[in-house]
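User:
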Amino acid sequence: MPASEQSRSNFCKQNKQIFDPCRDLFLNPLSSHSYGVLILNSPTKLVNDDLWKIWNFADLRVLVDGGSESWVVCKKIKDLSLPHLVTGDFDSITDETLLSFKQNEEVKVINTPDQNATDFTKALIELDSHRANSGIDLQNVYVVTEMIEGRIDHVMANINTLFTAAKQFPHLRVYRLSSDSISWLLTPGSSSIGIPEVLRDNQEWCSLVPVGAPAVITTSGLKWNLDNHRCLFGEMVSTSNTYDGSPVVEIQTDSPILWSMCTSGLKCKV
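Assistant: Predicted structure:
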Protein backbone atom coordinates (compact mmCIF):
# COMPACT_ATOMS: atom_id res chain seq x y z
CA MET A 1 0.00 0.00 0.00
CA PRO A 2 1.40 3.44 -0.92
CA ALA A 3 2.46 5.59 2.03
CA SER A 4 -0.33 8.13 1.40
CA GLU A 5 -3.04 5.44 1.43
CA GLN A 6 -1.54 3.79 4.52
CA SER A 7 -1.57 7.16 6.29
CA ARG A 8 -5.20 7.76 5.40
CA SER A 9 -6.16 4.22 6.51
CA ASN A 10 -4.45 4.70 9.88
CA PHE A 11 -6.14 8.11 10.30
CA CYS A 12 -9.59 6.62 9.66
CA LYS A 13 -9.07 3.75 12.10
CA GLN A 14 -7.95 6.13 14.83
CA ASN A 15 -10.99 8.38 14.34
CA LYS A 16 -13.76 5.75 14.19
CA GLN A 17 -17.11 6.91 15.53
CA ILE A 18 -20.00 4.70 16.63
CA PHE A 19 -23.56 5.84 15.83
CA ASP A 20 -26.76 4.12 16.91
CA PRO A 21 -29.46 6.81 17.18
CA CYS A 22 -32.25 4.44 16.13
CA ARG A 23 -31.52 2.28 19.15
CA ASP A 24 -31.48 5.32 21.44
CA LEU A 25 -34.75 6.69 20.05
CA PHE A 26 -36.76 3.59 19.19
CA LEU A 27 -35.31 0.32 20.52
CA ASN A 28 -34.40 1.42 24.05
CA PRO A 29 -36.69 3.35 26.42
CA LEU A 30 -36.39 7.08 25.81
CA SER A 31 -35.59 7.66 29.47
CA SER A 32 -32.45 5.53 29.19
CA HIS A 33 -30.28 8.26 27.67
CA SER A 34 -29.84 12.02 27.97
CA TYR A 35 -30.58 14.26 24.99
CA GLY A 36 -31.92 17.61 23.83
CA VAL A 37 -34.58 18.48 21.24
CA LEU A 38 -34.98 21.51 18.98
CA ILE A 39 -38.22 21.97 17.02
CA LEU A 40 -37.75 24.12 13.92
CA ASN A 41 -40.35 25.94 11.89
CA SER A 42 -42.03 23.59 9.42
CA PRO A 43 -44.85 24.11 6.89
CA THR A 44 -46.39 20.88 8.15
CA LYS A 45 -47.60 20.90 11.73
CA LEU A 46 -45.96 17.97 13.50
CA VAL A 47 -48.59 15.37 14.37
CA ASN A 48 -46.35 12.29 14.63
CA ASP A 49 -46.85 10.85 18.12
CA ASP A 50 -43.30 9.50 18.34
CA LEU A 51 -41.80 12.94 17.70
CA TRP A 52 -43.75 14.34 20.62
CA LYS A 53 -42.76 11.39 22.85
CA ILE A 54 -39.14 12.20 22.02
CA TRP A 55 -39.89 15.82 22.95
CA ASN A 56 -41.52 14.97 26.27
CA PHE A 57 -38.62 12.81 27.50
CA ALA A 58 -35.86 15.25 26.51
CA ASP A 59 -33.60 16.75 29.17
CA LEU A 60 -33.51 20.05 27.29
CA ARG A 61 -36.41 21.23 25.08
CA VAL A 62 -36.16 24.21 22.71
CA LEU A 63 -38.80 25.71 20.41
CA VAL A 64 -37.38 27.74 17.54
CA ASP A 65 -39.55 30.60 16.26
CA GLY A 66 -42.36 29.15 14.11
CA GLY A 67 -41.76 25.71 15.58
CA SER A 68 -43.61 27.08 18.59
CA GLU A 69 -46.82 27.08 16.54
CA SER A 70 -46.52 23.31 15.95
CA TRP A 71 -46.24 22.89 19.71
CA VAL A 72 -49.30 25.10 20.33
CA VAL A 73 -51.42 23.19 17.80
CA CYS A 74 -50.52 19.79 19.21
CA LYS A 75 -50.76 20.95 22.83
CA LYS A 76 -54.52 21.26 22.30
CA ILE A 77 -54.84 17.50 21.81
CA LYS A 78 -51.72 16.04 23.44
CA ASP A 79 -50.09 16.16 26.85
CA LEU A 80 -46.88 18.03 26.00
CA SER A 81 -44.07 19.16 28.27
CA LEU A 82 -43.21 22.85 28.33
CA PRO A 83 -40.12 24.06 26.49
CA HIS A 84 -37.15 25.18 28.53
CA LEU A 85 -36.24 27.76 25.86
CA VAL A 86 -38.04 29.60 23.07
CA THR A 87 -35.64 31.31 20.66
CA GLY A 88 -35.46 32.95 17.22
CA ASP A 89 -35.87 36.31 15.58
CA PHE A 90 -39.63 35.79 16.07
CA ASP A 91 -40.71 36.58 12.52
CA SER A 92 -42.64 33.28 12.26
CA ILE A 93 -44.40 33.18 15.61
CA THR A 94 -47.70 34.88 16.44
CA ASP A 95 -47.80 37.69 18.99
CA GLU A 96 -50.27 35.66 21.03
CA THR A 97 -48.01 32.61 21.24
CA LEU A 98 -44.93 34.68 22.03
CA LEU A 99 -46.73 36.58 24.78
CA SER A 100 -47.99 33.37 26.38
CA PHE A 101 -44.43 32.05 26.67
CA LYS A 102 -43.11 35.37 28.00
CA GLN A 103 -45.73 35.24 30.74
CA ASN A 104 -44.78 31.71 31.78
CA GLU A 105 -42.07 31.75 34.46
CA GLU A 106 -40.98 28.20 33.58
CA VAL A 107 -40.01 29.19 30.02
CA LYS A 108 -37.00 31.30 29.06
CA VAL A 109 -37.60 33.44 25.95
CA ILE A 110 -34.48 34.59 24.09
CA ASN A 111 -34.66 36.92 21.09
CA THR A 112 -31.82 36.23 18.61
CA PRO A 113 -32.15 38.95 15.94
CA ASP A 114 -28.73 38.42 14.27
CA GLN A 115 -29.41 37.89 10.55
CA ASN A 116 -25.91 36.57 9.83
CA ALA A 117 -26.92 33.16 11.15
CA THR A 118 -30.02 30.98 10.81
CA ASP A 119 -32.47 30.47 13.67
CA PHE A 120 -31.25 26.84 13.73
CA THR A 121 -27.64 27.91 14.29
CA LYS A 122 -28.57 30.52 16.88
CA ALA A 123 -30.80 28.03 18.70
CA LEU A 124 -27.91 25.58 18.97
CA ILE A 125 -25.80 28.33 20.52
CA GLU A 126 -28.50 29.06 23.11
CA LEU A 127 -29.09 25.36 23.78
CA ASP A 128 -25.38 24.76 24.38
CA SER A 129 -25.12 27.80 26.64
CA HIS A 130 -28.15 26.67 28.68
CA ARG A 131 -26.73 23.12 28.85
CA ALA A 132 -23.42 24.40 30.20
CA ASN A 133 -24.97 26.85 32.68
CA SER A 134 -27.45 24.27 33.97
CA GLY A 135 -24.91 21.46 34.23
CA ILE A 136 -26.97 19.22 31.95
CA ASP A 137 -24.91 16.30 30.66
CA LEU A 138 -26.05 15.49 27.14
CA GLN A 139 -24.34 14.49 23.92
CA ASN A 140 -27.16 14.09 21.41
CA VAL A 141 -29.40 16.84 20.04
CA TYR A 142 -32.34 15.94 17.80
CA VAL A 143 -33.55 18.72 15.51
CA VAL A 144 -37.14 18.09 14.50
CA THR A 145 -38.47 19.32 11.17
CA GLU A 146 -40.11 17.75 8.14
CA MET A 147 -37.35 16.89 5.70
CA ILE A 148 -38.71 17.40 2.17
CA GLU A 149 -41.20 20.21 2.53
CA GLY A 150 -40.78 23.95 2.37
CA ARG A 151 -38.23 26.19 0.70
CA ILE A 152 -35.16 24.49 -0.75
CA ASP A 153 -32.93 27.30 0.51
CA HIS A 154 -34.13 26.61 4.06
CA VAL A 155 -33.36 22.92 3.61
CA MET A 156 -29.84 23.72 2.37
CA ALA A 157 -29.31 26.23 5.18
CA ASN A 158 -30.22 23.54 7.71
CA ILE A 159 -27.73 21.14 6.13
CA ASN A 160 -25.10 23.87 6.28
CA THR A 161 -25.80 24.22 10.00
CA LEU A 162 -24.93 20.54 10.44
CA PHE A 163 -21.52 21.39 8.97
CA THR A 164 -20.99 24.46 11.15
CA ALA A 165 -22.23 22.60 14.24
CA ALA A 166 -19.57 19.92 13.76
CA LYS A 167 -16.93 22.66 14.10
CA GLN A 168 -18.68 24.86 16.65
CA PHE A 169 -20.03 22.14 18.96
CA PRO A 170 -17.74 19.11 18.59
CA HIS A 171 -19.01 17.81 21.94
CA LEU A 172 -22.57 17.53 20.57
CA ARG A 173 -23.97 15.14 18.01
CA VAL A 174 -26.65 16.95 16.04
CA TYR A 175 -29.25 14.83 14.22
CA ARG A 176 -31.95 16.10 11.88
CA LEU A 177 -35.12 14.15 12.65
CA SER A 178 -38.42 13.99 10.74
CA SER A 179 -41.51 11.79 10.91
CA ASP A 180 -39.88 9.05 8.83
CA SER A 181 -36.13 9.68 8.61
CA ILE A 182 -33.01 10.80 10.43
CA SER A 183 -29.89 12.48 9.00
CA TRP A 184 -26.54 13.58 10.35
CA LEU A 185 -23.06 14.53 9.27
CA LEU A 186 -20.28 11.96 9.10
CA THR A 187 -16.92 13.65 9.51
CA PRO A 188 -13.68 12.36 7.94
CA GLY A 189 -12.60 9.01 9.27
CA SER A 190 -14.46 5.76 9.91
CA SER A 191 -18.03 5.47 11.16
CA SER A 192 -20.08 2.50 12.31
CA ILE A 193 -23.88 2.84 12.13
CA GLY A 194 -26.31 0.43 13.80
CA ILE A 195 -29.20 -0.66 11.56
CA PRO A 196 -32.36 -2.05 13.24
CA GLU A 197 -33.62 -5.40 11.97
CA VAL A 198 -36.95 -4.06 10.71
CA LEU A 199 -35.16 -1.56 8.44
CA ARG A 200 -32.94 -4.32 7.05
CA ASP A 201 -35.85 -6.71 6.52
CA ASN A 202 -37.94 -4.06 4.77
CA GLN A 203 -35.01 -2.89 2.64
CA GLU A 204 -35.65 0.71 3.68
CA TRP A 205 -33.69 3.47 1.98
CA CYS A 206 -30.51 5.15 3.06
CA SER A 207 -28.14 7.59 1.35
CA LEU A 208 -24.63 9.04 1.45
CA VAL A 209 -24.29 12.52 -0.04
CA PRO A 210 -21.14 14.64 -0.16
CA VAL A 211 -22.10 18.29 0.22
CA GLY A 212 -19.72 21.04 -0.80
CA ALA A 213 -16.67 18.93 -1.61
CA PRO A 214 -15.76 15.58 -3.18
CA ALA A 215 -15.48 12.58 -0.88
CA VAL A 216 -13.67 9.29 -1.41
CA ILE A 217 -15.90 6.69 0.26
CA THR A 218 -15.62 2.99 1.12
CA THR A 219 -18.54 1.11 2.70
CA SER A 220 -19.68 -2.29 3.89
CA GLY A 221 -23.18 -3.40 4.87
CA LEU A 222 -24.96 -1.75 1.94
CA LYS A 223 -26.64 -3.40 -1.03
CA TRP A 224 -24.57 -1.18 -3.31
CA ASN A 225 -21.25 -0.68 -1.54
CA LEU A 226 -18.63 1.85 -2.52
CA ASP A 227 -14.99 0.86 -2.83
CA ASN A 228 -12.68 3.84 -2.58
CA HIS A 229 -15.16 5.65 -4.83
CA ARG A 230 -15.02 9.38 -5.48
CA CYS A 231 -18.46 10.97 -4.96
CA LEU A 232 -19.51 14.53 -5.68
CA PHE A 233 -22.30 16.54 -7.27
CA GLY A 234 -21.97 16.44 -11.04
CA GLU A 235 -20.68 12.87 -10.91
CA MET A 236 -22.05 10.21 -8.54
CA VAL A 237 -23.79 10.37 -5.18
CA SER A 238 -25.19 7.33 -3.38
CA THR A 239 -28.90 8.02 -2.96
CA SER A 240 -31.68 5.40 -2.77
CA ASN A 241 -29.29 2.80 -1.38
CA THR A 242 -30.34 0.11 1.10
CA TYR A 243 -28.88 -2.64 3.30
CA ASP A 244 -27.39 -6.07 2.63
CA GLY A 245 -28.73 -7.57 5.89
CA SER A 246 -25.76 -6.73 8.10
CA PRO A 247 -26.64 -5.19 11.51
CA VAL A 248 -23.97 -2.51 11.04
CA VAL A 249 -22.98 -0.27 8.14
CA GLU A 250 -19.32 0.71 8.06
CA ILE A 251 -18.33 3.90 6.23
CA GLN A 252 -14.92 5.38 5.61
CA THR A 253 -14.67 8.86 4.09
CA ASP A 254 -11.98 11.48 3.63
CA SER A 255 -14.48 14.39 3.57
CA PRO A 256 -17.72 15.18 5.42
CA ILE A 257 -20.83 13.46 4.02
CA LEU A 258 -24.52 13.61 4.89
CA TRP A 259 -25.89 10.22 5.95
CA SER A 260 -29.70 9.81 5.85
CA MET A 261 -31.82 6.79 6.64
CA CYS A 262 -35.51 5.90 6.75
CA THR A 263 -37.01 5.21 10.18
CA SER A 264 -40.43 3.92 9.04
CA GLY A 265 -41.63 0.98 11.13
CA LEU A 266 -39.80 2.09 14.27
CA LYS A 267 -41.81 3.09 17.35
CA CYS A 268 -40.64 4.76 20.53
CA LYS A 269 -40.55 2.96 23.86
CA VAL A 270 -41.38 4.94 26.97
